[in-house]
Amino acid sequence: MKNSHPFQQEATYQATRETTERAVSITPEAYTNPEFFEIEKKQVFQRNWVSAGPADRVKNPGDIMIAEVGGQSILITRDEEHQLQAFYNVCRHRGTRLCAGDGAVQKHIICPYHGWGYNLRGECVGTPLFDKGANRRAIQLHDISHLEAFDKKDYHLFPVRVQQWGLLIFVCLDETAPTLTEHVGDLPQRLANHRLDEWVTIGERTYEIDCNWKLLFENAIEYYHLPWVHPRLAKTSRIADHHRWQGNGMYCGICTSPVTATDDSGWLTMPNISGLTDVEDNSGYFFGLFPNVIIFIMPSHAFVIRALPVSPTRTVETAWLMSHPECVENVSASAIDEVMEFWHEVNLEDVGICQKVQQGLSSEPYKGGRLCYHFEEPVHRFQNMIIDAMVGRRHIPIGDSLEQSA
Please, where are the H alpha helices in 111-264? Predict the structure, then answer.
């Protein structure tokens, strides 16, 4: 059966499906329309791998991380064998939310309503006063002889696909989606020397923003706006030193090489990680991993943003400053704060301009604008990923080879 809603039909996006040299940006309704937002929640977020947060948040057995994915609350933990596990955050008894937020448990996840318990593999191991595991007094008070058909094994928490790549944990609600390996594509090869799976969180900020989440993603993957929006950043990440940086996989991005050292750099207060090539030792990689995580990787640290959609015109960003332990081993807290403040300043500049874009998108005559091929090809790539998801097309784009993007 064909999709009946115009937002799920190819004809709606014909102008954006053109080649980059001819393409017009996606319809403004993608950023303002409540119906688009509801369809997007299912087609984009419930059918793809979505970042839950930094991997070091679930480092030990019993660590709990809660993530919202496509309007669903997901519980992520590690079991006693250190294997990642993820489940819908709902008790199998009466549907109670199991965990209100991040934290840690010893061996069991206990429902706050009636005390049903689950081990770290999601198996139901406790149903107080409900089965023949109840004490004698409970059996005397409540005849449970007729519950022979009840078996805790039938009440496992609802599982969710979960996997780590690099410094992040990802979950996927759709069993038919491609693997995370296919989703991230050649990123592991491109960033192998950074050893991202060893990095830890050293700072965090939250931003409440009056714009659609896609505007924040698009802004992060193009450098056309640099001279006007980021005068300080443009000194160390010069527009002339940028180039497209994207290959096979669900990501879009750019690279700055070389990163220019100045007295106003802000991000150069920590030592670089060992083992990088000469090029990597002086390059910054700025990319968005579909659908909503933005990653800026420098030789000494990364600034990672997850854009959580709240409404068509409202987004909550969580930003993490991350680094390899060897880069922060002998670095003062004030030096780390300086790096965080630098990125905070940059991000506030991006937030400000994206909110202005959101305001402008409500202008009645505006139906989309011509994309600038040289600077906005990653935006075109991302918007076509959105269109693919909306129309139900599974497609992982290819791109430049590793040699072309060096």
Answer: 136-141, 180-184, 187-190, 213-220, 226-229, 233-236
d(CA 272, CA 268): 9
Query: Tokens for 247?
Result: 């290959």
As a whole number of Å, the CA-based R_g of the chain is 23
Structure-block tokens of residue 351: 């937030």
Burial of 15 (0-12, 13-18, 19+ CB in 10 A): middle
- Which of 272-276, 350-354, 399-403 bottoms out in mean pLDDT, i.e. has the lowest? 399-403
Q: Could you tell me whether strands 302-311 and 314-323 are parallel, antiparallel, or unpaired per DSSP bridges?
A: antiparallel
Question: Is there a contact between 171 and 50 (Cβ–Cβ < 8 Å)?
Answer: yes
Of residues 309, 256, 254, the one with CA closest to residue 31: 309
Alpha-carbon separation of residue 191 from 125, 172, 275, 327 (angstroms): 42, 23, 11, 17
Q: How far apart are CA 319 and CA 209, in angstroms?
A: 13
pTM of the model: 0.92
Relative to beta strand 293-297, strand 284-289 is antiparallel
Spell out the residues 6+ positions from residue 104 whose beta carbon is closer than 8 angstroms to its own: 60, 62, 63, 64
Separation CA 148–CA 352 (nearest Å): 62
> From CA 222, how far away is CA 287, in angstroms rounded?
9
SS (H, E, C) 150-170: CCHHHCCCCECEEEEECCEEE
Q: Which residue has the tokens 């997007």?
A: 40
Residue 66, number of CB atoms within 10 A of its CB: 19
pLDDT tens sequence across 156-202: 999 999 999 999 999 999 999 999 999 999 999 999 999 999 999 99
For residue 372, which amino acid is it? C
| Strands annotated E in 241-381 | 242-244, 251-256, 284-289, 293-297, 302-311, 314-323
